Amino acid sequence: MDLLDEMRGLITRHTAVGLRRGIVDGVTIASVDRPTFPVGTFSTPSLAIVAQGVKRTVLNGVPYDYRAGQYLVVSVDLPVIGQALEASPDRPFVVFSMSLRPADIAPLLLEAGAAGKPPAFTGMAVSDASPELLDPVVRLLRIADRPDDLRVLAPGYQREILWWLINGDQGALVRQIGLVDGNLAHISRGIRWIREHYREQLSVTDLAGLCGMSASSFHRHFRAATSMTPVQFQKQIRLQTARTLLMTRSGNVADIGYFVGYESPSQFSREYRKVFGVSPGRDAAQLSAMAQEDTRRELVDEPA
User: What is the pLDDT of residue 302?
Assistant: First the structure.
């Protein structure tokens, strides 16, 4: 059996459709049987390998599509919009995901030696998955329902996955995650600050100082990693948070705008429309209708 076919079969066997399942710390699998609506989320440093179907992740208006046999690497926390583009009951969208943690990557850099490729500085990239990368993924999935085997063997399989990533097409990008004193680590510190203080006024000069960089260097490297300026990044967080609130809470649109940091309702509506294509009020109504439709489908799909 082909490695990708086996990976697809194992994930399908180990997950219920529409649900995400944790295998071990930092590793999840999921499958969905219908295309999903675009959903804003915060993507953390991670690897996602698609075994079937097509996923789209949009960063600052730029789509990254990856399909069966391809993987996405995210190197820093990023506000993105994600959706499954191709999925059906006969051919569900199936994906394997693993967190990329600096503490796990750093020791491998000592073993890997000097990088053979020029360093990359970007937040997200797509590549084809090699057989060497898929092999430890499949071996990990084979023992997904054997707790004793997982406890002993899973750390080694995860380490092997990281090894092949470091030595693959996106190796330079993954290496950056493990460099504690690298520029990506400094930018990550700034990203964490913005996430925690997104409602406050942002001073790029002060934030650069917090990250130990000059304002010009911080601005240049921040944009390279996220495709956005710090101010644009903050705006994305505000708007995605507002959209979540519109979907989960009833309330005045202007109040939600004020809550996420906007001082002007008109500015909030204008920037919301620019990102999501509709006004906040209309989007709230559409999101509510989508949620009701999903609930209706789930009830119809339930066995009698």
Answer: 46
